[in-house]
Specification:
The chain has three helices and four strands, in the order ββαββαα. By secondary structure, the chain is α+β, with helices and mostly antiparallel strands. It has a four-stranded antiparallel sheet, covered by helices on one side. The C terminus is likely disordered.
C-alpha cells in the first residue's frame, strides 16, 4: 500500500482445519498513524497481516485499502507488504541493496528504487547501516544499529 493509505479490516475470520485463527476481527488504520497488533504466540497476528497483504484469503470478512475492496485481489495489486518477524534478507547483499531489490520488484526503476530505499531508511532511522550486510546486524537489539 502506498504511504498514506487507509486500511480497513471488516469482520475477518479465518480457520485452518477447523481451528479458528481469527474470529470477526475488525480494525482501522489511518494514514499517519502507527497501528500495533500485539498478542501472544498463536493469537492470529501473523494470519491477520498475511490476509491484509493478500498472502491468505479470509474465510469471512473483507479488506479495504483506501476504500477499495481488495479481499480477493492478488498481493501484487495491493501495494501492501508484510515484514516477517524474522527478516528475510539476502545475506550477500547490503541492507541498501535488499531494500532496492524490494522496491524494484514493485516496478520502480533503479534510480527511483535507490531514492525510495534511502527515504525508507531515513524514516526508519537506519541510514547508518545501509552499507552493511544483514549478518553484521544484531538480531533485535539496538546495538547493531549504532
Amino acid at each position: 500500500m502506498s504511504a498514506g493509505a487507509r486500511v480497513w479490516v471488516e469482520d475477518v475470520s479465518k480457520r485452518y482445519d477447523g481451528v479458528e485463527a481469527l474470529r470477526s476481527v475488525s480494525l482501522e488504520a489511518l494514514p499517519g498513524e502507527v497501528t500495533v497488533i500485539a498478542g501472544p504466540s498463536g493469537s492470529g497476528k501473523s494470519t491477520l497481516l498475511r490476509i491484509i497483504a493478500g498472502l491468505e484469503e479470509p474465510d469471512e470478512g473483507r479488506i479495504l485499502l483506501d476504500g477499495v475492496d481488495v479481499t480477493r485481489e492478488p498481493p501484487w495489486t495491493r501495494r501492501a507488504v508484510m515484514l516477517s518477524q524474522r527478516p528475510v534478507l539476502l545475506p550477500h547483499l547490503t541492507i541498501l541493496e535488499n531494500i532496492v531489490l524490494a522496491a524494484e520488484s514493485q516496478g520502480l526503476g533503479r534510480g527511483e528504487a535507490v531514492e525510495e530505499a534511502r527515504r525508507i531508511a531515513s524514516y526508519l532511522g537506519i541510514e547508518g547501516v545501509l552499507d552493511r550486510k544483514p549478518g553484521t546486524l544484531s538480531g533485535g537489539s539496538c546495538r547493531g544499529l549504532a
